[in-house]
């Protein structure tokens, strides 16, 4: 019996050589500076187009959490009504300014206002979630309503101007 071991037939490459080979392989599609610049410009243009489609609410550009006719219905329903939650951020800013006044009664009133608005927003979200689930179950029989209540409440707490995708219905529109 011989005590021979069989190897791979070549030396193990140095770490820096292996990393350089991987790095060069990832940059292979764009070799020259002009090609890299053109690829970056094309990628930026694609991203801007994709974002614009997302903000318009095009189904193909939406992430999975916003896709589907049920979610579109929820967005339109939430966007067609006003809620206290969308005013929470501006109210918090006012509360911040009022707490800078060195009168304890004003500071206390400001903090109390913040908690009252928060409580009203949570209660409004609770009733909104229940109503959304009931409306979706009636309009889309057999569709799951899991997560739609929270989706509606979170959208209703965003300032209307900052909602994404942008609102497609005006306040006061009747959504059926």
What is the fold's blueprint, element by element?
Elements: H1 15-26, H2 33-56, H3 69-79, H4 88-99, H5 104-139, H6 148-156
Secondary-structure content class: mainly alpha
Radius of gyration, whole Å: 28 Å
Q: Order of SSEs, N→C?
A: HHHHHH
Mean of residue pLDDT values? 91
The number of E-state strands comes to 0
How large is the share of residues in beta strands? under 5%
Helical proportion, percent range: 55-70%
Number of helices: 6
- What's the structural domain tally? 2
- What are the segments in which pLDDT stays under 50 over at least 5 consecutive residues? none
Overall geometry: extended
Cα-to-Cα separation, first versus last residue? 86 Å
Characterize the main sheet: none
Structural commentary:
The protein is mostly helical and 176 residues long. It folds into two domains: 31-61; 67-162. The chain is 59% helix and 0% strand. The chain has six helices and no strands. It has helices at residues 15-26, 33-56, 69-79, 88-99, 104-139, 148-156. Helix 3 packs parallel to helix 6 and helix 5 (104-139) packs across helix 6. It is extended and about 85 Å long.
């Amino acid at each position: 019996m011989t005590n021979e071991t069989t190897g791979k037939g070549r030396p193990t490459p140095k770490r820096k050589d292996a990393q350089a080979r991987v790095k060069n392989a990832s940059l292979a599609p764009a070799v020259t500076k002009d090609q890299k610049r053109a690829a970056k410009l094309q990628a930026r243009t694609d991203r801007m187009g994709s974002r614009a489609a997302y903000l318009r609410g095009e189904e193909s550009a939406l992430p999975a959490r916003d896709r589907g006719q049920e979610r579109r219905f929820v967005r339109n329903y939430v966007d067609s009504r006003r809620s206290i939650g969308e005013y929470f951020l501006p109210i918090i800013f006012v509360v911040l300014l009022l707490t800078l006044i060195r009168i304890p009664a004003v500071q206390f009133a400001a903090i109390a206002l913040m908690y009252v608005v928060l409580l009203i927003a949570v209660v409004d979200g609770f009733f909104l979630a229940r109503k959304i689930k009931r409306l979706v179950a009636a309009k889309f029989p057999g569709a799951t309503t899991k997560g739609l209540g929270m989706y509606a409440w979170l959208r209703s707490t965003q300032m209307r101007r900052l909602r994404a995708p942008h609102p497609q219905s005006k306040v006061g529109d009747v959504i059926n």
